Each structure stands twice: as C-alpha cells, then as structure tokens.
Amino acid sequence: MTSSTAPRAFPPDPAVAGPTRQGSGPGGRGPRGGSTTPTPTPTARTGETGRIRRQLPSSPWLFVAPGLLVVGTFSLYPFLTTLYHSFTSKQALRPGSYVGLANYRELLHDDMFWIALRNSTLYMVGVVPALVLLPLLLALLVERQLPGMTFFRSAFYTPVVASVVVVGLIWVWMLDDRGLINSLLETVGIGKIGFLSDQWLLLLSAMAVTVWKGLGYYMVIYLAALANVPRELHEAAAVDGAGAIRRFVTVTVPAVRTTMVLVGALSSVFAFKVFSEVYLIAGPGGGPAGEDTTLVMLIQRVGGGLTGRVGYASAISVVVFVVTVALMLLVLRFDRKEDA
Amino acid sequence: MRISRRAVAAATVLATVLPLSACGGGSDSDSSDASGDIKGKITFQTWNLQANFKDYFNGVIKDFEKEHPGTTVKWVDRPAEGYSESLSADAAGGTLPDVVNIAPDLVAPLAKAGLALDLDKDTTAASYRKEYLDGAWKSHQIPGLEGTYGFPWYLNTGPMFYNKRLLKDAGLDPENPPKTYDELFDQGLKIAEQTGGKVATLGQVPTIEDFGRYGAELMNKEGDAFTFNDAKGVAMLARYKELFDKKALDPQVLTATPETTGTKFLTEAIAMNPGNAHDLETFKKDAPSLYKNIGITDQITSTGKVNMYVMGVMVNSKTKEKPAAVAFAHYVTDPTRQMSFAKKVAIFPSTAGSLEDPYFNKEDGTDETRVRIAAAKSLKKAVNYTPVLFSEQMKTELRNNVAKALQGKQSPQAALDQAVEACNKLLKQS
C-alpha cells in the first residue's frame, strides 16, 4: 500500500480535523459561524481534539520506545558492530585494524566456507518441504474430535518443549553403531548403517531430528488455521463428489495457503541458521573432516574462544544475514504475488 | 506517520534474523607489585570443579578468609564445555575474575592481551617460585613472551585402560599389553583381524599429544612454526590409516568425542582407552563386567616419556585487589593445599617434594593406589606435549586433516602438510 492512497482510504474526520474547520484554540468558534449562541458541545470537542492532536506525534513513539530500546540494544547495536568488525582483523582479545574487504575476499577462497554454505543450503532444502507438509497432514489427523485425541496432540507436541540437547543425545544413542535403530536393522537382516560416520547420513540424521522436533510446533499453527476453514466448503465439495485427496487439494490447501507460506518462511530461516542439531549429531568438529559444518557452526568455530577471529567470523555472519534476509523477502514477494 | 507494510516486514525480518554479536578487546598489563594489605573482595573461578569438590573449596576459602581478615572470596565455577568461550567473553567484557583456574594453552592468549599477571615481574609472586617444581613453574611461560603467567596447580597423567577379555579373545596376552605405538598398532590389527572387525582397539583419532609421544617434533626451537609433519608424524598417521582401513579404529572414530569413546569402552565395544584413576569408580559402578576384566597399563609412548597435563591458576593483571588475588592464588596452589587436594582426587601436586610423600609411593594393594603410584612414577619424566600456542582452531585443523588422511582423501603427508600450513597461518594471526 502506498502513502498516496491513504487519504482516500481514510478521509479526514471532521470531528478531529481541528482548527482548519472549527477554528483555533480552546473554545474557539468557527470563522464562518457568526452566531453568538454558545455551542458548548462542539467547543468542548474542539478543545479535547486539540490536545489529542498535540499528543499525536510523540505518543506512538513513547509506546514503542521500550521495544525500540530492546531491539536497538540487543539486535541493532550488535548487528552494526558485527558489520563494522567484518571489515577489521579483530580477534577475541585484540582490537585489530581496518582491512577493507579482506575478510570477504578470504571467504571466497575458504573451502570450509563453501562446504558450510552448501550444508546450510542443503539443510534448508531438505527440511523446509517436510516441515511445510508433514505438520499439515498431522494436523488433519489430530483435528478430529475423537476420544483420546488430546493425548496424541500432546504427544506430538512433546518434542517441541524438550531441550534440543536432550533430543539430540537421544537420537545419537538411537543412531549409534550399537544403538536401537542399528540393532533393529541388524535383527531384520539389513545390517548396520553408518548414520553417525557417513557425512551425508549425518546430515540427513540431523535433518530428521529437526523435522521430528518441529512437527508439533507447526502442527499447532496448522490446527489454528484449519479451525478457520469453513466446514461448508468441505461439505459442498463432498456433495460434488470430491474424495478426501481432492478435498485436501482444492479446499484445505488453498484455505491454509497463507499459513503454509508462514511455516515455509519460518522454517527456512531456522533451517538455514541450524546449529544445535548438527553440532550434537555430527559432533563439535562438524562430522568427518568437518564436512557437515554449517554456517553458524563455522561462525562459532572461527570466532569462538580466546583466539577467535572475530573479524572473519563477522564476515560470515554478514553473509548469513544477507542470505536470510533475501530468503524472507523472497517468501514475502511470493506471498504478495499469490495474493494479487 | 504511516509505516508501510513493507517497512514493518523488513523490520520484522531484521529483528528475526540478526544472529550477530560483538566483543571488546584487551589492553596492556599492569606490572605493579602485589605487596601490601591483603584485603578486599576477589572472585575465584574454577573449571568444572563445583559438582565434586564443593566442600573442599568452601573450606579453602573459609580458611583463607580467616587467615586474612578483611578479605572475601567469591567462588564461581564454569562448566568444562565452552570454558574458553566464557573466558573470552569475560576478558572482552572486562569481567574477568581476579583469580582464574587455567591451562597453559588458555593462558597464552590472555597473557598476550596483557590480562594475565606476570608472576616473575611481581616481587611478591616471584618469591613463591621455590615452592614449585621448576618444570611446572615454566609450564606457564609463553614462547615469544617473557615471564610466567600462572601459578602451577595440579598435574595429571592418566594410565591406559584395556579390556583383558577382548585381548585374550583375540589371542593376545592380556598381561602383556602394548607399551609403544608400534606394539599398539600391531596388536590393534590383530584384534581387528581375529574379531572380523567387530572389536576396535581405539576410539579416537590421533591428537597433537599422540604425535608428540610418537616422537614427532611438534614445533621448531624458536617456537614460531609447527613441524609435526615430519617423517615421524607422517609415519604415525600412515599407521593410523592402516588401522582405520582394517577396522581397528571404531567406525565412528571420525566424529567421536572423549565422552562418546568413554561410553564405548564401558560397553566393551573398544579394547583400549586412556583415562585416570577416577575412572575406576565409574567402571565399578556403571560397568561391573568390564571392571572384572579391566587392565591398567602406562600411557602408550614411543619416546619413553608420557604426556602430562598441567593446570594452573592465573591472576588477572587488572584486578583491583592485587595483594589479595596473588595471596589467594598462591594459597590455593601452595604445597599444603595441593597435597590435600591430591588426596581427594586422582591428581598430582606440582609443588617441590610433594611427590616424595608416601601417599604416592606406598602400595596398599588397591587398584587405585596402584594407578596412583604408577602415574606418580611416570610423572617424574613426563612432558607436557600440548604446545602452549596450540589453539582450539588449530586442534580443529589437525583433526579435520587427520580425518581426510584416514578417509583416503589425502595422503598422510599431504594432510599433515596442510594441517601445519593452516596452524602456522593461525599462529601468525594470533
């Protein structure tokens, strides 16, 4: 929406138009009035609106000030500092000096950066479709009012509230060479699979943990969206002979499309910034030879500790920021296009 | 003022995705003397000791406060995980505690940033030097810097535990475990062969200390370049590759941590694992079947010298209560306190003459004492193989390149060359 459309959409209210119509100052009379009869009500309103008008420019800012303070202190200031540091050779305990684009140039030639970028991108591509679709299917299953359904809703939501560290450790135990899953596979004659030793299986395992942990969270979002889908639409489609799959495609999906976009946007940002799951599954080293390192893991590794290269880690952080913003804008643009 | 939806969306995006943070910097050290009235409030930080030694440290603090009226010691303990990160944040934020439990490789960057007190320059602190073993005092000296930056605290050297049953099942003599790396490699290959690769001998890839114990020269004499890609280093990595290929190393060795390897040893999935006397309690409690078959031998070494881990206590050079901080750092690490701490846990004092105590020499028939006596004996010719300047980032470089060699993506020589090159680059940047 552009600002030029605003006056048409919200024409000035005469009651609050103030001096231009009603005259200026408290108790003022309209310039065209000429009547000597007191008109207390409009006068009082004018006085009141005058005060309101004077308060208008500043009061919204007072309301948002606490939020601005928090965002400025904990997001904007660190962001600007990081941006600045990305152009310096700063280390954890040393100020460093301005080095221009040297950190960014070094990134271009850093194999580990490209590995991390590849892994973060793969993670997003692998996780997002599953997190958009599976929770929707789960929500469709548990939205029915059947006896005991509350238990299933709670059960599916449990991983969301569990600590990611606990979840990661449980999965490591299950995926271990001698863990539950490999024991089962061996029992049925398939043999052991190196979930925790192969670089690609490690990444897939971490993705599975992210999806498993995120299912319940997005399921709740979808449940809220599904509650707003008019039942009549389903009934009408059923009367027209549409089966369950057709009703899902033609009624449910369009009705929750906005929610799907939201889930897609949120999950893609979180997936691109993944740290904990890969750290726990692939180990602090990021898998064999660091081949499963993601961008945020790389930031932590390069910039962490007493000898961390804060300037270089900041440059990677800026790249993560740019990519994430681009992702969000892409999703918003996609959403607008669909709205049009 | 109207704000467009786009602006709101952009602001939301910014608030959502800003993942970034910043740190401050250090400054030069203050070398004024620590003589003067011992009083004031100081903070003492330990490294993951509160869980098991709360009463001990509370007692030490209480005794110190009693001996020095007017002093208050606030004790904080940080978890082992992320200790250097927390130190980094404290140092950058100007909130580094007055007295800090530290290791030589962690004190190096703090000393370079002027945040660690040079004990040699401080008359009071330097006067305590004679109480410590000379080698231990020197362990907190940094190549390229003059001075000593921490009081030596406890020393540790762990034995190698092995599973007698697994060795016996593989046709080896359980009473004659490997002592050198070559023996270890030969026996490891035999175990893998006899068990069809089902039992691995080791669960960890070689670390910088392994290269040292194998005989590789870790750094040049000037201390300004790493050299572990020499013939010895390459030879050792080539043997490790052979072990990996023949499944004598655990299949998950490339992603293992000491904790996961410890668990595998408990479950008898691997035959040998380094540890300390404290582990015996764990075996007894958590893995009785392993405990029945546990064998204890010296650390594997081809140089005749085992690795010694050194812990120290640093004084923050910016402390406002320098006399109290120096006095407390010395108090915690003095011969009396070190000896009493050593009797509570399987560590060894770094103070002169303490290792002559009967506690470290007299057998009483228990396994714990046997381990303690063996370790104390080996400490006399032990070496701290961890180079003081070997940072966390360098450890990562070494581990990643070792993994490439084991996977066959690079030859051992190329992998070590690359690791050395990366470490030297980081060394120059530090």
From TrEMBL, chain A:
Annotated localization: Cell membrane
GO BP annotation list: transmembrane transport
Recorded GO CC terms: plasma membrane
Assigned keywords, A-Z: Cell membrane, Membrane, Transmembrane, Transmembrane helix, Transport
Entries under PROSITE patterns matching the protein: ABC_TM1 (PS50928)
Gene3D superfamilies linked to this entry: MetI-like
Low complexity bias locations: 34-49
ABC transmembrane type-1 domain sequence ranges: 117-331
Regions crossing the membrane: 61-80, 122-142, 154-174, 200-227, 248-272, 310-332
Signal peptide region: none
Pfam family, one: BPD_transp_1
Membrane topology qualifier: Multi-pass membrane protein
Alphabetized InterPro entries for the sequence: ABC_transporter_permease, MetI-like, MetI-like_sf
Coiled coil feature spans: none
Region (Disordered): 1-51
Amino acid composition bias (Gly residues), ranges on this chain: 24-33
Family: Belongs to the binding-protein-dependent transport system permease family.
Protein name (Swiss-Prot/TrEMBL): Sugar ABC transporter permease
Species of provenance: Streptomyces paludis
Automatic annotation (TrEMBL), chain B:
UniProt-listed CDD domains: PBP2_TMBP_like
GO BP term, example: maltodextrin transmembrane transport
Top-rank lineage group of the source organism: Bacteria
Keyword Transport: yes
InterPro entries per the UniProt record, alphabetical: SBP
Residues annotated as signal peptide: 1-22
GO molecular function: maltose binding
Keywords from the UniProt entry: Signal, Transport
Pfam families found in the cross-reference section: SBP_bac_1
GO CC terms: ATP-binding cassette (ABC) transporter complex, substrate-binding subunit-containing
Protein's UniProt keywords contain Transport: yes
Protein family (similarity comment): Belongs to the bacterial solute-binding protein 1 family.
The protein, known as: Sugar ABC transporter substrate-binding protein
